[in-house]
Each structure stands twice: as structure tokens, then as C-alpha cells.
Amino acid sequence: MTTIGARIEEIAPGRVVLSAPITPHIAQQHGFAHAGATFALGDSAAGYAALSLMPEGTEVLTVEMKINLIAPAAGTRLVAEGEVVKPGRRLVIVRATVRAAAEDGTLRDVALLQGTMIPS
Amino acid sequence: MTTIGARIEEIAPGRVVLSAPITPHIAQQHGFAHAGATFALGDSAAGYAALSLMPEGTEVLTVEMKINLIAPAAGTRLVAEGEVVKPGRRLVIVRATVRAAAEDGTLRDVALLQGTMIPS
Amino acid sequence: MTTIGARIEEIAPGRVVLSAPITPHIAQQHGFAHAGATFALGDSAAGYAALSLMPEGTEVLTVEMKINLIAPAAGTRLVAEGEVVKPGRRLVIVRATVRAAAEDGTLRDVALLQGTMIPS
Amino acid sequence: MTTIGARIEEIAPGRVVLSAPITPHIAQQHGFAHAGATFALGDSAAGYAALSLMPEGTEVLTVEMKINLIAPAAGTRLVAEGEVVKPGRRLVIVRATVRAAAEDGTLRDVALLQGTMIPS
Q1: DSSP summary character for residue C4
Q2: Which candidate from A63, A66, A115 shows the least CB-CB separation from D91?
Q3: pLDDT block averages, 10 residues each, chain A of length 120
Q4: The domain spanning residue C43 has which CATH number?
Q5: Is any Cβ of chain D less than 8 angstroms from the Cβ of C25?
Q6: What is the pTM of this model?
């Protein structure tokens, strides 16, 4: 997460919000965040959300994740909200929405993720 | 791609191989490449494979991508092989396999991707 | 849809609810609805939701769909709520939630779908 | 499976082929097999492939499955080939390819599936 300059914005049980600046570092030729950076932030928010419901010392791994990229990630920051849809001892089902924040603070949905985490 | 130090290993029509070092930069606490880095390399290999079948000057965007992470990405390098499964004017269906290379060059499958690209 | 005895429960712009009885016809050995039937109902609800935002005479096709099955589909009826997350001229992003209704009317989430439709 | 008239064509360890007729029963308005039927056959082939590697008496459930529909399922029969990509005690990663057979026996890929099964 440090690679993309992410920071934690909010933590609640089963819900975590992360954000990261859209820098040339993670952007493609047009200045939009790359699919890989958008995925990384959304996946991490979902993973932390899963972790927030587990005993201390547990870790989680992504088993599988699907991302739909629905708009160009143009703006100054990416904001990813991860949530647990279905907790479980063996499998945790998660979703995340990634939004791009413009200079003026306006948020626009750019990607939706849905996947599965396991405690490890 | 430069963010994760990726380089092109092979380009053929409809098939592209990329690789990137597994550095602390893209690794999690256990030294395995992070799901985000694995995704980014696989998605890029798939995108370049789609691009390899298009007229010069075209660009492609990921519409959606699914990744199954099947083994820890432990080793010194990630190698991603992207291929076009079904070319199309409107939509291009792609797959990618990401492998981790150990010191001795042994390769191990770590992730499978399947998704859709569009020319833009 | 007639194969699984589905009926329309609600139609609103961008949102459609379908339901179908859980009969031995669509159930596996334990009396739970089969993943295929759950998928079919969710995918259809999502498709009709996409169709509800299009000019009359248009048809839609599923480009890709991901389903997470989160609980056994036990009960008397399946109820699928499809919604358009992001409309578009070329691609429509959809989601659906499938629930199982027990004898007493209690609803339980059994599956989440996320995918892409195209007008055809 | 009886609902869609499926039959087993081949069984080998980690690989199962199923087929089913494309009847009005499972077809949409244009005579193509519905996405739901295509999914059901592919998911079943993948599930049986997983089962083929397990101790007798075990059952498997689909945790999640992604399908890309790449061509209209036009023809007389659907043929689904499921295979285990990565066996495991807790999770089994599977893929399936669904093809449509024309009158003259020609096969055409119509869908690709990738997902996760668990023993239950």
C-alpha cells in the first residue's frame, strides 16, 4: 500500500475506507489511474474490511476478485470503500467501490469489486 | 508498468509475456507479491495481447477482469502471459496466467485472469 | 424463464424483481436450488433491469457475469433483484441479489451477481 | 442436470465433458441457448471435474463462478468441458469451456468459465 501512497480514512467493523493520490506513478498515458492501481486500492480496502471482523493476529488473503471498471479514474485522489457482505469462518465475501475525487471534492464511481477472502 | 519495474519478454500476435521483479516494493509482509501487483502485471499482459491485434494508434481499456489467486507469489520474478481468446471489433476477450519464478528458474502458476478489453 | 417458472414481481426504470419457485426441477440432491437456476434468475433480473432503460425493441445480451454463492438456496421461492449500476450506450453494468424465501416469508441472501450487458 | 437433459460424455481425473441438447426449453427468442443454460452446463462440468478428484461420498459446492459469453450458442447441442486447474483440500480452482455443436458436428466456443469449488 505504501507503494501507491495509500492511507486509511475510516475503519469500522466490516467497513474500511482507503485513499491514494492519483500521481503519474500510478497513472497511464492520459492521466487516469491505471486499472492495476484501482484494483490494488479496492482489493486492499476489501481485505482490511474482512480483517476488521477477525481476531487480532489473523491475516487474510484474496482468493479471487472481480473488478468492473465503469469510468475513467480521472481526478486527484482515489477513494476505495470496502465492505464485508457475508462474514464466515472459512470464507469472507467482500465488495468494494472505488471512486475518483476531483479537485473540487466531487466523487465519481470508477470501479466495483466483488470477491472472496480467506483467513490465513 | 514502470512503477512495478515490468519489462516485455515476448510479443506475438495475440500473445504477450511480461515480467517484473518481486521486490519489497510490491510485496506484502511475507515477501510474496501483493495481489495488486500480480493483478497489474496479468492485466497489462492481457491488454498488450489485445493491443497486438489492433491497428497502430489504437488503445485498449480493461472493461472487467477476474483474478483467481491460486498460490503465494513467492520467488524472485513474476512472469505474466496474456493471450487473446476471442478477438472482436467491439470487445476482446482475454486471459492471462501469472507465474512466479524461483531463484533456480522454476516457474509456478500463481494467478489466472479472465476478462474483457475494449478499443478506445 | 418459463423453464424455471419465473414471474415478474416488480419493474421500475433500472430495477427489476423476478421470482421462481424452488421445485425438485431446479434443486440438487439436498433440496437447495442449483447454482445454475440461481444464476439464471439473477442474470435474467439484471438483463431485464438493463432492458428497462432502453428504447423499445432493443434486446440485451450478457457479455460476462460473476456470481458469488453465499448461502444455500433453501426455501420455497427464489427472488432476484436486478439493478443497473451504470447505464451506457455501448455497455451496461449490472448487479443482482438473489434471495431465498422461506415458508414464513423470511428472505435470506443467497447469491450476488455483477456483470456486463450489451444492447444487441 | 436432468432439467436441461444433460448427459456425461467423458470422465477422467480432473476433467469431465457434459452435453445437452439446445431445445426451445433452454433457448431464448432467437433459438440460441440462454446464458443461464450455458452457465448451468459449464458450472456442472466444472463441479464434476472437481468431484472426480475427491474421495467417494464427498460433494462440492460452487463458491463463485465467472462466465464470459463469447459467441451466440447456436446449434443443436451444447458441449461443456470442465477441468480442475488447481486442486486443493479447502478450495478447488476450475475452468470450463462451453461449445455449441452445429448439425454437421462443427464445434464453436461459446463461453468460458473460471471459478472456485469447495468440498462440502
Answers
A1: G
A2: A63
A3: 85 98 76 89 97 93 97 94 96 98 94 96
A4: 3.10.129.10
A5: yes
A6: 0.95
